[in-house]
Every structure is written in C-alpha cells, then in structure tokens.
Amino acid sequence: MSGISRRKFLAASVAVGAATTLGGTKKALAAGSFSGYPNSMGVLVDLTRCIGCRSCEAACNKEQKLPDPNLPFDDMSVFDQTFHHGTQKRRTDESAYTVVNRYTPEGSEPIYRKVQCNHCAEPACLSSCFVNAYTKTKEGAVIYDGSVCVGCRNCMIACPFNVPAYSYSSAFGAVVKKCIFCHETRLKDGLPPACVEICPQEALTFGKRKDLLKIGHQRIQTHPGRYIDRVYGEKELGGTHWMYLSPIPVEEVGFDPRPGNEPIISHVKEFLGVVPMVLAIWPALFTGFHLLAKNQEGHGDHEHDTEHQHDEEGGQQ
Amino acid sequence: MKSLVELGVKPVDSLINERNDKRWSLMEKLFLGLSPGQYLGQALRNPFNWILGLIFAVGLPLILYRFIFGLGAITHASNDYPWGLFLGFGLFCMVPLSASGFMLGTTVEIFGRHDFHPIERLALLNGLLGYFFAVVYLMVDLGQPWRLPYPMFWSFGPAAVLFLVAWHVATYLSVQIAEVSVAFFEWMDWLGGKRFIRRITIGLTVSGIILSTLHQGALGALFNYAPGKVHPLWYSASFQWIHFFVSAIPAGLCMVIVVSTIIKKTMAWRCDDGFLDSLDRCTLGIAKGAAMGLITYLVIKFIGVAHDNEWAYLATGWGAWFLFEMFVGVLLPLVLFAYAIRHQVASLARWGAAFTVLGIVLNRLNTALITFNWKLYQEIPHIFEFIVALTVFAIYITTYRFILYRLPILYSWKEQPQEALAPEAVKAAPASTTVSPANAVYRKID
Q1: What average pLDDT score do residues B12-31 get?
Q2: Residue B186 belongs to some domain of the structure
Q3: Minimal Cβ distance to B143: which of A87, A174, A256
Q4: pLDDT (mean) for A159-164
Q5: How far, in Å, CA of B139 to CA of A11, rounded?
Q6: Inter-chain CB pairs, A–B, below 8 Å
Q7: Do residues B66 and B74 lie in contact, with contact meaning Cβ atoms separated by under 8 Å?
Q8: Which residues lie closer than 8 Å to B318 by C-beta, 6 or more apart?
C-alpha cells in the first residue's frame, strides 16, 4: 500500500525536481561566464565636469513622460534637501528616474553626482526577478516589462545601488520604476539617452562601453591630479554600463567604495546549487530513515498506536 | 465556554449526538452542539473576543483603505526599505514558526515515534495556518496580488530564489492541506477521503521535508541578494540558507509548545485526556529536539562569524545587539531546556520555548528590517503598517481558534458504529450526567 505511493512519489519528485532546477542551474551557469555584449553601449560620467544644472533631470522627465516635479528643474534649493534626519540625499523614485546630488567635501568646490540606473552587465534586479520581467538588451540597457511585475520588490532589495523605485501611490497598477537608458525611444536606434544629449558640459559621454573605458583611463592618465585612479563601474559588481570618473574618493560622493567585483548573482549561486541536491537526495534519505525506523519496531508496528487502529476500523464500517 | 462545560454541556466530539442518537447536523457541529443563543453568549462573555473585535474595528477598514488607495497609503512607501513589516514579520517570521508541521510529521510518520501522535495534528495545523497567513501577509504586501499566479503559470524566472520560494510554498501549502484534511474528513464523516490521505501519508511527509528544507533555506538565501545591505553579523555569504533552515527547526517546535501551552490554559475543555495527559511528556520530548536544534544553530552562527571573519563587529553596538539576540533567543532557552529536561519540569521548557520563539522573531526582524540598510538609516514602519500587521495576526488567531474548537485536532473523533453506541446511550440516560443545553441555561439564570 505505502510501497506504491512511495514509488509514485519518488517518480513524481524526480520529475518535479528536474523540471524546476534544470532551468535554474542552466541560467546560473550561463551568468557565470557572461562577459557582456561586445558592442553594447554605456555612458561615462565625469564628475569634474558636472555643474549641477539639472537639465538632465528635466530632459529625463520630458522623455519618459513623468509627472511635473514639486519644485521646477531650475530650482537649485533641492541640493539642500536631506531626508531621514539629514542622513540621506535625494534618490530616484517613481516620478524621477534620475537625480543630481551635491556633495561638498571640505576645502573644495562642490561636486555634483547624477544618480540613475547604472545598467549592470549582470544585473542584480534581473537575477532576483521571479517573473523574469527584466531584460539586459544587447545595446546595454536593463529594461523591464511592467505588465508582468507582481510587485514583490525583490529587485529593490537586490539592487546594490538602490535604484529601482516603486509606484507606491498606485492602487491597481503599481509596478517597479527605473531608468531604462531611453531604450525604447532612443537607444535601440543608436541614439544617446535624453540626459546625455542635453548635457551642456559634456559631463556625460555616450559610446561603446569598451571605448568609454579607454577614454576614462586616458583622462586619468592625462590629468593625474584631477581624478582618482579609478573608473567606478569598470569592475564593480561585475561591471556596469554607466561608469564614473571622480576627483575624490568615491565614498565621498555617496558610492559604496568596496561593493566587490562579483555580480550579485554569484552570492546566491551557492544556494541554487544546493537545490537539485536536496531534491535528489532527500527522498531516498528520508524514505530510507522511515524503512529503518519501521524495521526496528518490528511486530510492534501496529501495537504502539491504538488510535490509528481504531480509526482504520472505524473507517471500514 | 469553560463555564458551560462546568455545567455539563459537552461540545461535539463524535458523529452521533448522544442525547437523541441522531447524527449531528453541520449547523450543530458549527455551533459545537450549543444553541445559537448559548453560542453567542459564550462568545460575548469571552473578554478576548472584545479585544479581537476592537482590533478588527480599526484594522479591517485600514486593510480596505490599503486596497483602494495603494500600499503608499498605509506605509512610508520607502524605496530604501522595500520590505516592511508584512514581509519582515508576516513572511520571514511566520514561515519558520510554522516548521512544526514537517518536524512533527517527520517524527511521527518517518521515524515512527508514535508517542508524539497526540500533538501531531496540532503541529500540522500550526504549520498550515502559519503558511496560509504568511501568504495572506504577502497578498497585503504585493503591489498587484492578483498577479501572484504569474510566476506559476505566466512568466517564469526560474533562476530567482523567490521563484523557488513561490513554488515551494504553494506546493507545500497543498501538502499541508492534505495532511490536515484528515481531521476535516473525520469531522465531516467523509471516510473515503481520510483513507486516501492515510495511504499517501509517507509521500506527503517526505515531500514536506524536501519542500521545507528548500524554502526555509531559500528565505535566507533571499538576503544573499543584498550582501552590502544586511549587517555582516546577520549575513553569511555561504551559510545564510542553512542558518535560516536550522533555526526554523527549534522555531517550529517551540511554536507548538507555546501554542499548546495557550491551549492548555484557555481551551482545556476542548482537549481530551489523551492530549492533556501526554502534553507534559510531549512538551519535554519536543524541547529535547528544540535544544538540539538550538545548540546546532548557535554553533553554526558562530562558524558563520568565523568564516567571514567578522569578530571585530562583535565589539560594536551592532555586535552587542547580536550577542543580545544570541543570549536571549538561543543561550537562555538552551539553559532552560537543559534544566527542564534534566529535572522533568515541563513548565520551564515552556518558558524556554517562549524565549526561542521570541529569539527567532527577533532574528528575522533583525535580518529583514532592523539591520537591513545598516549603512543608511533606521526605518520605523508607519503606525498603520503596525495596525494592519496586527489585524492580519488577529485574523490568524481567530481562524486558528475556530478550527481548534471544531475539528478533532486536540481530541480524537469518536466514530462509534450505531450498535456500539446504543448500550452506552442507555447507560448514560439513567445516570443523567449529561445536562441538556437548555437546562444549563436555566441553571445559569438560577
């Protein structure tokens, strides 16, 4: 009686196990060897050139058809805004996919940093999404399909740059919101995103990622006093497609100085590898335990439990 | 209810009404064999119901408000803390506290320890309801809860840890429904269903172990997506999933002890002697298992600290908080359990269980909320978020109690065949030990 169910169960669990895990491991392995699309695009942000004019914010707002801001884009008082007891500067949200913040290191001119999605080569948001809403396009953008977004907000947990925001204000259509590199309207036709196009200071350079890396290192070499020797985003978290040149250590402009060079997916691979092993080993292991325990009981198997017996009898009548 | 039982009213516990030899109707079963008036009376006399009523009066409109105006209406709508109390407490705490189902199922069905049988059904029910309400919390939290089936049928992201959680929790929920349905089939007198579940018990139990191992672990692995956000003492690069899995074992076991203690204090009328007499023994037995789980957990937590070389953090404020969690939630219950088992003091084991439950809740809240974004700022959830979380918990308690009152979880269902019952009924009649509900009310008035 129980033999049949065990056999059936084993067959079923192997089938389910194979179905649920093969997909997972295959993708994880592919992610491990992924070194980016060869000709994908990126942007190099030169913090020494940015003057904090906020025209990129305005351009983004227009291009992405976002709601009007509370304060106009030429109002520079936003740089004085702080949040959460003065610990936080402005961040991206559902109505602003990019913001510029001002940092004032002691004894130096203010430095402005533009925040937007950095379009990782191996995006954390993509790897954490259980409905596969995110796509890394061959042009380099990380885009998403809001029509399947369930609203679990795991991508927001996963994003090491705290970029994705959520449309909390919407009751029936709440989805994740973030910069998509103007993929739909510009990037896929080879055009730079709206923010880059409007920048009056050429603080943003649009180009192939591999060329931008060369440009970045060249600038550092040509002006060793102007920059710190680091292209932030070259290797960080598996590499990003938006990269930064900074005149001061990156932690002073609000970056995590040591995010590690591993993409976020590497941190969950260990667990994903455990899954097929548990699915494969546990059935035999625990059915085996059961058989061992049963054998030990011997003849006592039916004596120990009068209730069971009683139930069975009751059931037959 | 207690006062009615003292007056001789006997709640439904069998197929046949002993007073008139007829089968109880469904309505009678739902009212526990009381008249509607009596039922309402006992419900109104219970002060706890008034507390629940107050919570519902405030909380239910707030839940409605959330679904009309969006999540931002009852939370701080934080983009930095995307997961608030609904997941931090509702999902990450309720799920480990519901590991009881697979633990006791394994003990009884796989290892053949039928001496734990009296408490097995309570453990299974505790598991089922905990998971069910974890999903309810999730539904409150999800931006578009009606899309919850998407990862199942519509759009697959199989490389995501949450995909595994979704599938496993859904599958395990069905497994648990099947396991608990035995009690329901007895109560409804659908014996075919019961026989069918009996036949597949081993299969159900083993799949329960597999699914539990993986999704308890997966809840931990979800935080591996945020290596820079969770404080290093609560984050382990290699062992996060196993920390969550191992701690779920004492969590689930201790939750059963806590729940059974509350039942013993408030619901003894519903328990049969088989349950009450074996409760102390079962409690100590479960405490033994929980103690083994806790000591393992303590060791692997410190292995985690050593593995990532995080000793320096112990000297910081966060370190003190971490040590506090370990002392109160792990070490203290270990000491209590050790003493309780050595000297066979069940009441002490119950205290140990209470501290363990608190410790696990603290651990999950620490990981998901308190130490999350430790480099940024501390988020204190909106007052409405607290109220809604409390309201869902109150619905959980109400449902839990509703089922315990009725289904044969704490007592065994008497399925005497008609002819066996007849002489008993004759015996009972002259002794007139059973007072009819109507009489009981009269006496009360007297």
Answers
A1: 74
A2: yes
A3: A174
A4: 93
A5: 33
A6: 243
A7: yes
A8: B231, B233, B371, B374
Q: What value does the mean pLDDT of chain A take?
A: 82
Under a CB-based contact definition with an 8 Å cutoff, are residues A124 and A113 in contact? no
Least confident piece of the model among B247-251, B371-375, B427-431: B427-431
Considering only residues 156 to 175 of chain A, which have any Cβ-Cβ distance to chain B shorter than 8 Å? 156-158, 160, 162, 164-175
A82 to chain B, any CB pair closer than 8 A? The answer is no
The answer to whether the beta carbons of residues B290 and B357 sit under 8 Å apart is no
Residues in chain A: 317
Q: Please give the C-alpha separations between residue B93 and each of A58, A148, A184, B149, B255, in angstroms, as whole numbers.
A: 43, 28, 41, 23, 11
User: Would you say residue B210 lies in a domain?
Assistant: yes
In a 3-state reduction of DSSP, which class is residue A91? coil
- pLDDT score of B130: 93
Taking 70 as the threshold, does the pLDDT of residue A5 lie above it? no
Q: Please say whether the beta carbons of B33 and B10 come within 8 A.
A: yes
CATH number of the domain bearing residue B271: 1.20.1630.10
Question: Which H or E run includes B17?
Answer: strand B16-17
Q: Which of B79, B195, B198 is the closest to A93 by Cβ?
A: B79
Task: Among 3.10.310.10, 2.40.40.10, 3.30.70.20, 3.60.10.10, name the CATH number for the domain at A44-263.
Answer: 3.30.70.20
**Inside any domain, residue B354:** yes
Q: Between A27, A87, A278, which is nearest B159 by CB?
A: A27
Alpha-carbon gap: B357 to the closest alpha carbon of chain A (Å): 26
d(CA B138, CA B130): 12
What is the rounded average pLDDT of the residues B318-335? 94
* Eight-class DSSP state of B109: I
Q: Where along chain A do its domains lie? A: 1-33+267-294, 44-263
Q: Which residue type is seen at A308?
A: H
pLDDT recorded at residue A204: 93
Structural domain range at position B154: 87-415
Cβ within 8 Å, pair A168-B69: no
Is the pLDDT at A306 greater than 90, yes or no? no
Asked if the structure places residue B151 within a domain, the reply is: yes
Residue B140 CB partners (closer than 8 Å, separation 6+)? B63, B66, B86, B90, B388, B392
Which residue type sits at B261? T
Burial of B166 (0-12, 13-18, 19+ CB in 10 A): buried
Are residues A157 and B222, on separate chains, in Cβ contact within 8 Å? yes
